[in-house]
């Protein structure tokens, strides 16, 4: 198997919850064995899509690597993906196989082909296949579970080049050891896995959160050197007190997955400096595999609030409404990124998987930004309507559509980590219940959602909802 | 309101559960709302309700409804009194 994430080294690759350590050589062996045992080949040699319902554990990582190494196209999903969401994705993408550990999963037209411990591999009993582009290697969801089957199409070159750029600016050598503080089905979490495997470094595999004593136990006792977090992770770290935590060998912190306010960046940067820890604020999108920009750790404090400069091999610029490049300083424009990690494009169903590279290396991020000295950028706003709830992108229009399906007339707006909904008062549905239902559907904590009744929705002259007015009155 | 009522009310409000489920088996991540985000919210609500400021290790080790009762003793709060 020829995949740059697999090595024949005897050094540690994955440290498991049960205390075991898997070497790189053993990981490669396991991926090879899985391919042999699973017999998930289709009727011909065509590329096949495989759904991988992941945890941060060994079987999930083996499934991902085995699929990638054999030219199958994995779609990584959370293990607790909602049944309705899974069904709609199965319908849209007609996968050849589904890997997961949910015994209760019922998949029409699939049979259990392989089984070990809690894990199963379901394979389609009848599969005529469909054309998949030769460069397509991986599918990732762009957003939280709003029911949209929209996926990002990534090539092996996308994944490897991004992992390599990350490994280079973070200086990931064989001695580095990350802890999986984010799920691997999430592009940022996956980039941590990929960049460490590429560098023949190691990872502690865990699903534990920062609020779990076992997580800190692992940091202390298993030689963890780095921790990745979304803005909320840093809210938690600040509350816990970075100065008071026992951090053992930890020496690198990275932050992405949304905007951490500048004052918080300063607090984290200062506390990190005191403890001799490197802190890298970063920026990225799943549409660019994961990483687009980073702030070098030595500038984290002075450049607080900036997303930094393009990663090695990439470039950033701004464009105006007409698509013209903005060269002057102090002018806001859409942030555009070019680099080898820009995805091939989106997919809405299996037919789109035959498509080639539609982006041609250039990504319009949908974020508005200002250019600063030294090629640094600061995000000033967003063209598209979405919020990030604890790192998960949630489309506001999709939220409105979800509510409409339940017969609710409502407007969604908000900021990162707080989704606001104003609904026309409805005697049948209390705001509290709507919060509860929405949290369950989106898979976020109810604290991220604020729902209130409103007599009528303010509208602009053109009849569209006046979100500015709603925001101002919130 | 007694300390017990105040303590229970924080769980009811933060996690949307009834008082009936609040016992030794009500542990971190036993309901979707008690994830890391909910945990931070609960700690903040307890701090406000009892006028205390909890320390790092107590926040991390606050793994269940029952453990929390023990943790609060350190701050002079006897929930069961």
Provide keyphrases for this structure:
heterodimer; A: 474 residues; alpha/beta; Rossmann fold; GMP Synthetase, Chain A, domain 3; 2 domains; nine-stranded mixed sheet; five-stranded mixed sheet; 27 strands; B: 81 residues; mainly alpha; 4 helices; 0% strand; globular
Radius of gyration of chain B: 11 Å
β-sheet strand percentage of chain A: 25-35%
| Main β sheet profile of chain A | 9 strands, mixed
Euclidean distance between termini CA atoms of chain A: 55 Å
Assembly of the depicted chains? heterodimer
Radius of gyration of CA atoms of chain A, rounded to a whole number: 22 Å
For the record, give the distance between the C-alpha atoms at the N and C termini of chain B, rounded to a whole number: 12 Å
- Overall CATH class of the largest domain in chain A: Alpha Beta
Pairing-aware structural class of the strands and helices of chain A?
Answer: alpha/beta
Overview of this structure, please?
The complex is a heterodimer of chains A (474) and B (81). Chain A is of the alpha/beta class and 474 residues long. Chain A has helices at 24-38, 58-69, 83-93, 156-170, 187-198, 213-221, 231-240, 262-274, 396-405, 431-442, 467-473, and strands spanning 12-15, 21-23, 49-54, 73-78, 97-100, 110-116, 119-124, 136-141, 151-155, 177-179, 202-204, 226-229, 252-255, 278-284, 291-294, 309-310, 315-319, 325-326, 333-338, 345-347, 362-371, 377-382, 386-389, 392-395, 410-415, 418-424, 449-454. In chain A, the strands form six sheets. Chain A has a nine-stranded mixed beta sheet with strand order 2-1-11-10-12-13-14-15-16, with helices on both faces. A five-stranded mixed beta sheet of chain A has the order 4-3-5-7-6, with helices on one face. Chain B has 81 residues and is mostly helical. Chain B is globular. The mean pLDDT of chain B is 95. The A-B interface holds A 209-213, 216, 232, 235-236, 239-241, 244-245, 390, 436, 439-440, 444-448 and B 16, 28, 32-33, 35-41, 43, 55-56, 59-61, 63.
């Amino acid at each position: 198997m020829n995949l740059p994430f697999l090595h024949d080294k005897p050094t540690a690759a994955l440290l498991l919850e049960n205390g075991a350590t898997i070497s790189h050589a053993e990981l490669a062996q396991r991926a090879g064995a899985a391919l042999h045992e699973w017999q998930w080949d289709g009727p011909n040699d065509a590329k096949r899509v495989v759904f991988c319902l992941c945890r941060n554990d060994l079987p999930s990582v083996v499934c991902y690597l085995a699929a990638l190494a054999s030219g199958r196209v994995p779609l990584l999903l959370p293990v607790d993906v909602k049944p309705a969401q899974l069904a709609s994705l199965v319908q849209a993408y007609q996968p050849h196989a589904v890997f997961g550990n949910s015994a209760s999963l019922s998949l029409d037209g699939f049979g259990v082909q392989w089984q070990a411990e809690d894990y199963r591999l379901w394979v389609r009993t009848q599969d005529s296949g469909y054309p998949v582009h030769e460069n397509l290697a991986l599918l990732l969801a762009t957003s939280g579970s709003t029911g949209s089957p929209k996926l990002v199409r990534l090539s092996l070159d996308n994944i490897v080049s991004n992992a390599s750029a990350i490994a280079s600016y973070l200086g990931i050598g064989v001695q580095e050891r990350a802890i999986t503080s984010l799920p691997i089905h999430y592009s940022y979490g996956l980039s941590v896995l990929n960049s460490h495997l590429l560098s023949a470094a190691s990872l502690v595999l865990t699903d534990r959160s920062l609020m779990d004593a076992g997580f800190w136990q692992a940091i202390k006792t298993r030689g963890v050197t780095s921790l990745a977090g979304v803005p909320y992770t840093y809210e938690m770290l600040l509350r816990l007190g970075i100065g008071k935590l026992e951090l053992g060998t930890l020496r690198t912190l990275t932050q992405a997955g949304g905007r951490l306010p500048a004052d918080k960046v300063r607090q984290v940067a200062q506390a990190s400096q005191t403890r001799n820890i490197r802190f890298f604020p970063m920026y990225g999108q799943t549409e660019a595999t994961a990483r687009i920009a980073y702030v070098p750790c030595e500038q984290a404090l002075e450049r607080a609030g900036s997303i930094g400069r393009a990663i090695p091999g990439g470039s950033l610029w701004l464009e105006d409404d007409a698509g013209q490049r903005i060269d002057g300083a102090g002018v806001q424009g859409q942030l555009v990124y070019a680099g080898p990690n820009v995805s091939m494009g989106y997919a809405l169903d299996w037919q789109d998987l035959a498509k080639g590279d539609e982006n041609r290396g250039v990504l319009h991020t949908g974020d508005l930004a200002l250019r600063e000295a030294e090629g640094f950028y600061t995000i000033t706003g967003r063209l598209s309507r979405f919020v990030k709830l604890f790192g998960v992108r949630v489309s506001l229009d999709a939220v409105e559509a979800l509510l409409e399906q339940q017969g609710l007339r409502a407007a969604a707006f908000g900021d990162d980590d707080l989704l606001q909904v104003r609904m026309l008062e409805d005697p049948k549905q209390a705001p509290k219940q709507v919060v509860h239902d929405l949290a369950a559907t989106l898979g976020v904590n109810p604290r991220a959602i604020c729902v209130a009744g409103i007599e009528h929705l303010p509208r602009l002259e053109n009849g569209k909802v006046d979100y500015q007015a709603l925001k101002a009155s919130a | 309101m007694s300390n017990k009522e105040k303590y229970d009310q924080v769980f009811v409000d933060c996690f949307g559960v009834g008082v009936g489920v609040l016992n030794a088996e009500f542990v971190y991540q036993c309901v979707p709302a008690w994830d890391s985000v909910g945990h931070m919210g609960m700690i903040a609500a307890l701090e406000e309700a009892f006028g205390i400021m909890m320390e790092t290790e107590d926040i991390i080790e606050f793994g269940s409804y029952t453990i929390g009762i023990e943790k609060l003793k350190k701050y002079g709060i006897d929930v069961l009194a």
